[in-house]
Design goal:
Elements (H helix, E strand, L loop, with lengths): L15 H17 L5 H7 L5 H13 L26 E4 L17 E4 H5 L6 E5 L15 E5 L9 E6 L2 E10 L2 E5 L14 E11 L3
Antiparallel strand pairs: 1-2, 3-4, 4-8, 5-6, 5-8, 6-7
Helix pairs in contact: 2-3
């Protein structure tokens, strides 16, 4: 009898969101040595109901990407060496003048690993694709990817993923007379105050743009 666990199932049948949840679980386990609970996952993905994240986990179990123990907890995923992605390391040259021309530096200063440069904590980091032009004055344009870190204490003037009365939006966190609000980086958009609740799902750490 063949043991199905010897042949990992392809993740190609999963939706992007399901693959994101699976990758988050893997990173969480790798870093902490135990599995995230449904409450951990709901908090990480900004979902109020654990039932919504439970549905995703159940799909991953059905697709044989995850297993549960008798108590319903997610088992530790066995990651084989071949499954660990190789970090992309590129030579860093420069600096290059953005003003007047300057002599070219042909010797690389150092080798940069993009993962380490862009991401401080993989298990707490995710990407969002930007829609709209409300942050153009901050250099964030429609179609850009923003690197967002969860769990970091947001500070005033940081660009954050805000949850304004249950709706997600990318804005700058501001405070006036003790009251927090969200501010666009485009004068065509008004400041946004919560009618009920303002939360922060993550802090933007960097922007990625493909030309």
């Amino acid at each position: 009898m063949v043991n199905d666990r010897s042949f990992p199932q392809s993740t190609m049948t999963l939706t992007p969101h399901q693959r994101t949840v699976l990758n988050y679980i893997r990173e969480f386990q790798h870093k902490r040595g135990y599995s995230p609970s449904l409450a951990d996952l709901a908090l990480a993905f900004g979902v109020r109901s654990k039932n919504a994240i439970a549905k995703v986990v159940n799909v991953l179990v059905r697709e044989k990407q995850l297993e549960k123990d008798p108590k319903g907890r997610i088992k530790i995923i066995e990651i084989h060496e071949a499954e660990i992605p190789e970090a992309m390391t590129l030579p860093l040259f420069g600096p290059i003048a953005a003003g007047f021309a300057a002599p070219v530096e042909e010797q690389a200063e150092e080798m940069i690993t993009l993962d380490d440069y862009l991401v401080r904590d993989r298990a707490s980091t995710f990407l969002l694709r930007v829609k709209g032009d409300s942050m153009i004055d901050a250099g964030i344009h429609e179609g850009d990817l923003v690197v967002v870190e969860r769990g970091k204490e947001p500070r005033v003037n940081e660009i954050v993923v805000g949850v304004l009365d249950g709706e997600f939006t990318l804005k700058r966190l501001k405070r006036n007379k003790g009251k927090y609000y969200l501010q666009a980086e485009n004068p065509a958009y008004p400041d946004m105050y919560a009618m009920e609740e303002l939360q922060v799902a993550g802090v933007v750490k960097s922007v990625i743009r493909k030309y």
